[in-house]
Write a structure and sequence with these properties.
Blueprint: E1 2-10, E2 19-28, H1 37-40, E3 45-46, E4 56-57, H2 61-64, H3 72-83, H4 92-98, H5 126-142, E5 145-155, H6 157-165, H7 170-189, E6 191-197, H8 206-212, E7 217-223, E8 227-234, E9 237-244, H9 247-250, H10 252-279, H11 290-306
Parallel strand pairs: 1-6, 3-4, 6-9
Antiparallel strand pairs: 1-2, 2-5, 7-8, 8-9
């Protein structure tokens, strides 16, 4: 059996809200050739919304989500896969726990998250997600593919800024947390192949991987655009890691990871916006990107001061 994983992120550019990085993992029978999960699972999944019928759409979250379209496609896919694990999460807090996001005690630093929750699903009927998940389980079993789970890292501003203060720039911070997920996969499975989205314009990862996996041999097979590919070895353990431009377009696990990231980030932002809109009725919500973040911060400034809310927990430094 082969273990394949995909890692992606959401929220790298905004000033407000968390940066979320997720790894998803599948077990695929060795006889299944190129392991194209869109092809293998065609009876239950599709790569694009148009003409997908009853199938779950798994694709780049940037194509599946907009404020106008809403969370439906993301929610359908993420919860259908998550329910395969026998954990039919029914709230935001449940989902955070099942994804092992971080020490949930960190949420106590944020008044918009502390003791706050959202019932899930938000947009999709629970019975429909259950039906999709049942079909997905049937098709996965028939194709000898198993979904092993997902794990996320969510860095809200305080945690994000603390890592910057340790000497990481923004790009290295992203790699560090991606490497933490890779290390977890390395420890859990030993032998696997992982696909990751490219980190900006970076093409060379050898030195970074050698530092992250000290004591292991790191061999570069390709370093360029659109692909940088490496093999990490230590004893019986071996992991091939590829950083690929637009990986969510060509690798099913990365596409699914991007959906988990975006769904989770949007749930965080729902709670964040709800908190401030309760303080300032009529306030337009924000997605946290620089220009709109400045508008939002200007609008909430007086209330923020009166509530003694520090920028340390509100705004990322970069």
């Amino acid at each position: 059996m082969a273990i394949i994983a995909g890692i992606d992120e959401a929220g790298y550019g905004p000033f407000l809200g968390p940066l979320v990085i997720t790894a998803v993992v599948f077990e695929v029978h060795d006889s299944l050739g190129d392991k194209d999960l869109w092809r293998l699972l065609d009876g239950a999944v599709a790569s694009r919304p148009r003409g997908s019928g009853p199938r779950i759409v798994v694709g780049d979250s940037k194509r599946l989500y907009s404020r106008k379209r809403g969370l439906g496609r993301l929610e359908e896919g993420v919860l259908a896969f998550q329910w395969l694990l026998g954990d039919k999460v029914s709230s935001f807090q449940d989902l955070l726990g099942s994804l092992n996001c971080f020490d949930l005690g960190n949420l106590k630093s944020y008044p918009w998250y502390q003791q706050k929750d959202l019932d899930l699903p938000i947009t999709y009927p629970r019975v429909e997600i259950n039906n999709h998940s049942s079909l997905l389980k049937e098709v996965l079993s028939s194709k000898r593919v198993r979904f092993l789970g997902a794990r996320s890292i969510a860095l809200s501003p305080k945690e994000f800024n603390e890592q910057l203060a340790q000497g990481y720039n923004k790009a290295l911070l992203l790699f560090k947390n991606c490497a933490n997920l890779l290390s977890t996969l390395w420890e859990d499975y030993g032998r696997l192949e992982a696909f990751c989205g490219k980190h900006g314009g970076r093409n060379r990862y050898s030195t970074l991987l050698s530092h992250a996996f000290q004591g292991s041999a790191v061999e570069a097979f390709s370093e360029g655009n659109p692909l940088s590919c490496y093999e990490i070895r230590s004893g019986d353990k071996k992991m091939r890691v590829s950083f690929i431009k637009s990986a969510e377009e060509s690798h099913f696990p990365v596409a699914l990871a991007s959906m988990y990231c975006k769904y989770l980030r949007e749930l965080f932002l729902k709670l964040f916006n709800k908190y401030w809109q309760e303080k300032l009725p009529g306030l337009r919500p924000t997605a946290g990107y620089p220009m709109d973040a400045r508008r939002f911060l200007k609008n909430i400034d007086k209330v923020k001061v009166s509530l003694r809310i520090s920028d340390e927990i509100l705004v990322r430094n970069r």
